[in-house]
Protein backbone atom coordinates (compact mmCIF):
# COMPACT_ATOMS: atom_id res chain seq x y z
CA UNK A 1 0.00 0.00 0.00
CA UNK A 2 1.32 3.45 -0.92
CA UNK A 3 1.83 6.19 1.66
CA UNK A 4 1.70 8.85 -1.05
CA UNK A 5 -1.03 11.45 -1.00
CA UNK A 6 -1.48 15.16 -1.37
CA UNK A 7 -0.99 17.34 1.66
CA UNK A 8 -3.87 19.58 2.70
CA UNK A 9 -3.02 23.20 1.91
CA UNK A 10 -3.36 26.35 4.00
CA UNK A 11 -5.18 28.04 1.12
CA UNK A 12 -6.77 26.50 -1.91
CA UNK A 13 -6.02 27.87 -5.41
CA UNK A 14 -9.42 29.60 -5.27
CA UNK A 15 -8.26 31.56 -2.21
CA UNK A 16 -10.45 29.75 0.33
CA UNK A 17 -8.79 28.90 3.63
CA UNK A 18 -8.15 25.21 4.28
CA UNK A 19 -6.87 23.71 7.53
CA UNK A 20 -3.12 22.97 7.47
CA UNK A 21 -2.08 19.33 7.64
CA UNK A 22 -0.18 19.62 10.87
CA UNK A 23 0.39 21.87 13.87
CA UNK A 24 3.72 23.66 14.35
CA UNK A 25 6.30 21.36 15.95
CA UNK A 26 6.52 23.71 18.92
CA UNK A 27 2.76 23.86 19.53
CA UNK A 28 2.03 20.32 20.70
CA UNK A 29 2.90 16.71 20.05
CA UNK A 30 1.68 15.65 16.60
CA UNK A 31 -0.70 12.74 16.47
CA UNK A 32 0.10 9.79 14.20
CA UNK A 33 -1.99 11.07 11.26
CA UNK A 34 -0.42 14.54 11.38
CA UNK A 35 3.06 13.07 11.60
CA UNK A 36 2.37 10.85 8.57
CA UNK A 37 1.17 13.84 6.52
CA UNK A 38 4.24 15.92 7.41
CA UNK A 39 6.49 12.92 6.84
CA UNK A 40 5.25 12.50 3.24
CA UNK A 41 6.26 16.07 2.48
CA UNK A 42 9.68 15.90 4.11
CA UNK A 43 10.36 12.39 2.78
CA UNK A 44 9.81 13.68 -0.76
CA UNK A 45 12.29 16.49 -0.10
CA UNK A 46 14.76 14.13 1.59
CA UNK A 47 16.31 13.17 -1.73
CA UNK A 48 18.96 15.69 -2.89
CA UNK A 49 17.81 15.52 -6.53
CA UNK A 50 14.19 16.13 -5.54
CA UNK A 51 15.21 19.01 -3.30
CA UNK A 52 17.14 20.59 -6.18
CA UNK A 53 14.19 20.11 -8.54
CA UNK A 54 11.78 21.61 -5.99
CA UNK A 55 14.16 24.54 -5.55
CA UNK A 56 14.42 25.02 -9.32
CA UNK A 57 10.66 25.26 -9.62
CA UNK A 58 10.12 27.33 -6.47
CA UNK A 59 12.82 29.86 -7.32
CA UNK A 60 11.91 30.36 -10.97
CA UNK A 61 11.14 34.03 -11.63
CA UNK A 62 7.82 33.32 -13.37
CA UNK A 63 6.52 31.20 -10.48
CA UNK A 64 6.45 28.20 -12.76
CA UNK A 65 8.88 26.49 -15.05
CA UNK A 66 8.73 24.26 -18.08
CA UNK A 67 10.33 20.88 -17.61
CA UNK A 68 12.49 21.84 -20.61
CA UNK A 69 13.93 24.79 -18.62
CA UNK A 70 14.86 22.86 -15.48
CA UNK A 71 18.65 22.94 -15.18
CA UNK A 72 20.74 19.79 -15.26
CA UNK A 73 20.64 18.10 -11.86
CA UNK A 74 22.97 15.25 -12.80
CA UNK A 75 20.40 12.58 -13.66
CA UNK A 76 18.79 11.42 -16.90
CA UNK A 77 15.54 12.98 -18.19
CA UNK A 78 13.49 9.87 -17.27
CA UNK A 79 14.86 10.09 -13.72
CA UNK A 80 13.96 13.80 -13.58
CA UNK A 81 10.42 12.85 -14.60
CA UNK A 82 10.30 10.18 -11.89
CA UNK A 83 11.39 12.66 -9.22
CA UNK A 84 8.93 15.32 -10.41
CA UNK A 85 6.18 12.69 -10.22
CA UNK A 86 7.15 11.90 -6.62
CA UNK A 87 7.04 15.62 -5.73
CA UNK A 88 3.57 15.84 -7.29
CA UNK A 89 2.37 12.75 -5.42
CA UNK A 90 3.53 14.33 -2.16
CA UNK A 91 1.43 17.41 -2.97
CA UNK A 92 4.42 19.72 -3.31
CA UNK A 93 4.10 20.50 -7.03
CA UNK A 94 1.28 20.93 -9.49
CA UNK A 95 1.64 20.66 -13.24
CA UNK A 96 -0.09 21.66 -16.42
CA UNK A 97 0.53 20.28 -19.91
CA UNK A 98 0.81 22.91 -22.64
CA UNK A 99 1.34 21.32 -26.01
CA UNK A 100 4.29 18.97 -25.72
CA UNK A 101 5.71 20.53 -22.54
CA UNK A 102 4.73 20.23 -18.89
CA UNK A 103 4.92 23.30 -16.64
CA UNK A 104 5.45 22.86 -12.90
CA UNK A 105 4.68 25.24 -10.06
CA UNK A 106 4.74 25.27 -6.27
CA UNK A 107 1.57 26.55 -4.71
CA UNK A 108 2.45 29.37 -2.25
CA UNK A 109 0.34 27.64 0.38
CA UNK A 110 2.69 24.64 0.30
CA UNK A 111 5.63 26.86 1.24
CA UNK A 112 3.51 28.50 3.94
CA UNK A 113 2.49 25.10 5.31
CA UNK A 114 6.13 23.96 5.45
CA UNK A 115 7.12 27.15 7.26
CA UNK A 116 4.25 26.85 9.72
CA UNK A 117 5.16 23.28 10.64
CA UNK A 118 8.76 24.31 11.36
CA UNK A 119 8.30 27.70 12.98
CA UNK A 120 4.66 28.20 13.90
CA UNK A 121 2.38 30.89 12.51
CA UNK A 122 3.92 34.34 12.34
CA UNK A 123 7.35 33.30 13.65
CA UNK A 124 9.40 33.50 10.47
UniProtKB/TrEMBL annotation:
It comes from the Bacteria. Signal peptide: none annotated. Residues 30-124 form the HTH arsR-type domain. Keywords: DNA-binding, Transcription, Transcription regulation. Pfam families: HTH_5. GO terms for molecular function: DNA binding; DNA-binding transcription factor activity. The keyword DNA-binding applies. InterPro entries: ArsR-like_HTH, HTH_ArsR_DNA-bd_dom, HTH_MetalResp_TranReg, WH-like_DNA-bd_sf, WH_DNA-bd_sf. The keyword Transcription applies. This is Helix-turn-helix transcriptional regulator.
